[in-house]
Design goal:
Distance between the termini: 32 Å
Strand content: 15-25%
Strand order of the largest sheet: 7-6-8-9-10-14-15
Largest sheet: 7 strands, mixed
Radius of gyration: 21 Å
Number of helices: 13
Shape: globular
Helix content: 25-40%
Length: 428
Amino acid sequence: MTLISRRGLATLAAAVLSLAAVSPGQAQAPAPRGEPIRIAMIEGLSGPFANTGEAVFRNLLWATERVNARGGVKLPGGARPLLIERFDSKNQAEEALASLRLANDRGITIVAQGNSSAAASAIIEAINKHNEREPQRRQLFLNYSAVDPVLTNEKCSPWHFRFDAHADMRMTALMSVLREDKALERIYLIGQDYSFGQGVLREARRQLGAQRPDVKIVGDELHPMARIKDFLPYATKIKASGAQAVLTGNWGNDLTLLVKAAREVGFDGRFYTFYGNALGAPAALGDAGIGKVVAVADWFPNVPTAESEAFYKTFRERFPKPEEDYVHMRMQLMIEALAQAIERAGTVEAGAVAAQLEKADVGLAGQRGRMRGADHQFQQSLAVAVMDRQGTPGVKFDVEGSGYGFRVIRSLTPQQAELPHTCSMPRF
């Protein structure tokens, strides 16, 4: 397994690059000098989804820089900085487990992963077994993007904490907009053939049946994940079906190539997506996506508040290249929650931190979230937005320099986004 970052350079980044997280006029706290609290980021950093892994790293790096800039994590023995160490899972569950073992061998007890529910499920099982076998060396799992609902339901674990809204929560937010589309009569469902993609289509069928039984599903298919180079055959079927909209949980290149192919065959219907707001999708559609690509997220750059605008501008100052433009509020809140939990625990021991993390309540730039202790599912606001040209009302910021951004059209409070759970797990 390749360790992408050199520890020396990463430590220097934690101490020096933290300056970038300080807001103008804000006094900088003394740089923490204690031993770094290391976080193993296990993510696909090579292959077709490498861009999503790099986006995660930028977000986690920026979040730790902010904590370090204010003096680090305060502990009885002195303040300590946070440090991200990168492990390349190559988007394979087996490689993710190999990375987990390597992190454990290096003495890293905090693990962060997200861009694969299959990998997340494997990590949960491995950490459960490890923590039972070696209670003196327990590990903690922070999940920022793996949204298969079972991870905080049937497979919930006292060591796993999810900071993204799970797929059923996202689907409920999307459906709040779709159900009002009275012109919609025919829809095509398509997704990646693994646990998350299967779950998205299953929930889409259920919610459509409950809320829009008048809408006919004219296509319902799964495709191999990260293997399709040419989506034209799929796009051709979508257009031939007479669908007026597509609903998909696709992400990364599987989404970008799909929407690009749809444009090429002349499909002019709507795309209801989980992740259509970045990573090349808006640029791939161009004007054809205006008013037709709908996405759901915990936050968008065009959330209409001064705090949100300042937050986004600070991120773009830190990462100014267009291809670096993909900031996740939930990842910032996750690191804030971790720092809060460690300080309240007064130690980095996994059990003590987990006991505090399940009571986390954090806010940043006007956004707030709390951890639900019963299932370790973070509860936060959700927003639905539609693609439009930059400069139109509500679209001050574009995406990745594309000239297109997303205007928020629906906001759900944490209470409105919350769903019941079936978790039953042992306590610490």
